[in-house]
Every structure is written in C-alpha cells, then in structure tokens.
Fold each of these.
Amino acid sequence: MATLKDKLDAFDGQPEQEWNKRKGISVGERGQVYRANFSQEYMSAVYAIDGGIIKDYDIVKCDKLVLLDLDNQTLFELFVELKGANIQHAIKQVETTLKNPLFKDSAVKKREARIVGRKIPSNTGNSITEIAKKNFISRYNCRLEFKTGPAVENIKI
C-alpha cells in the first residue's frame, strides 16, 4: 500500500521543496511568509496543495503542507494557509483540506495547522479564531494557531 509520502510525491511537480534533512522550513505566497523552526533536524518537504496537489479551482483548500518524517515510520503534518485578511475563509480552506482523504494516513501521528494573515481578529474568548481552535482539536485532532505575518515560530514536536 502506498504511503502518504509516496502518494504526494507522485503528483506532478511535487514536492515543491524536496525531501531534505533540515532544522527549519520557510514558505511564502502573495507577500505572506511563514517560517517554522524545529528543535532538531528532520527529513522534511513542502507540498503546494492549492494549484499543486489539488489543481481543481472549485475545491476549497489551503496553500501548503509541510510534512516531516520523524523516524521513518511517523509523520507530522503542518498545514499552512497564507492569507491577507479573510480569516473566516482561511479557516474553511484549512478545514476542507483536513477532511480530504488524501491526507489521512496511519503514519501521521501529529497534525497542526497555521493561518498566517495580515490581521488576525482579537481573542475575545468566543471569537471565530477561538471557536475554530476548539473545533479543530475536537473534530480533527489538529492544533490550529493564528499568526500575523511574516511569522516565525519554534515548533515543538
């Protein structure tokens, strides 16, 4: 049976950033940039989901998938949506991507998502961002974080 890595690598032009051992990775689009730093070097690659793996423009999807191979049997998925201001639409894009059966694999032990925008709504305890964070954990076992771009963070795996 094909692994998630095999399935993703089979798409034309993928991965966007080849598999390599690295301690951090950076993605950008439309003037937004996101950089993730890891505590150690991992084999990792970046896949373009929107216009890459999923070319159908009628399907809502997020921009990038950073995939880490933690120990040759365990994967870590980090979905990234680089947005201007429409955070509600960004949430929908990431959520729809998480539901896509292509990204389901028993080797994935941890998944997270980041939405990077120019302006993130304030945390009021019941804002769209806080509701989305709770929904992503309960529905998809995925920690969702919002960052104002350009964003740099240390990822704890």
Note: Residues 87-99 form the longest helix (13 residues).
Amino acid sequence: MVDCEVLVKMELWKISQKVSELSDVIPYYFFSLVSSCLSLSTVLVVFSLGTWGVIGIIVISFYVVIPYLLFAVPVQVLFNKHPKKFSLNYFCLYIFFSLPAVFIYSSVLNFDFSMDILTTKNFYAISLLAALFFWFWDSVFLQKKSSAS
C-alpha cells in the first residue's frame, strides 16, 4: 500500500514539474503565434492593395490563427524539444506542413474541394509566407540554441 502511495506522489510530482516547465514557455508560444498571424495578415492586406486597412489585418488574423494552431503549433512544440535558431531543416518542415494547411483551409473557406487551387500562384505564395513568418517568429521567441544548419 505504501508503494502505491509513493508511486502516485512521484507521478503527481512529475506532472507538476511538466506543467511548471510548460507554463514558462506558453507566453512565448503565444507571442510567436500572434506575431505570425499579424505578419501574414499585414502582407495579405498590403498585397490586396490595402483596401481593408487595419480592420483587414485584424479580421484576417482571426482567420489565419486556426490553421496555425492546428498545423504549426504542434510542429513547433515538437521542434522545441531540440531547439535550433533559424534552422533551414525546420523551415523546410514548416513549408511541408504549410502546404496542406493552406490547401485544406482554402478549400473549407471556399467550399471548393477540387485540386484547382494547386495551380494558382497565390496558394504557393501564401503557403511559403505562412511558413516563413512562423519559422522566423518561432526562432526569435522559442528556439534558444544557435545552429548553423
């Protein structure tokens, strides 16, 4: 009986330790996410000839936060186990995950699940920009080690 209590206390201590470690980095994940959303939204508004202005940046940010949360943040958490600032390998993987994220999100928003979107330059430009901004802000806020990859 005592062994069981000791095991439970040890497990609770391990969980408490992990939660404590995670709570230290959550603000950095948040800053990375918000910065990425605002950066991508700003570029999208500027390239649409600024017809939306600041309201467009805010509205588009709310739209782009969803794919970032579903696709990029889990990858970011995985990368943070082996942090490397401005790693080209990480950038390539962000691009890899950005392509299906933008495809799925565009298909859902446009109610068009055809493969026609893959023939547009905008699809690839938005995918590349989404990956670039997230990789940049991830490197600035979360990746602690310096890497020459």
Note: DSSP finds four helices and no strands in the chain.
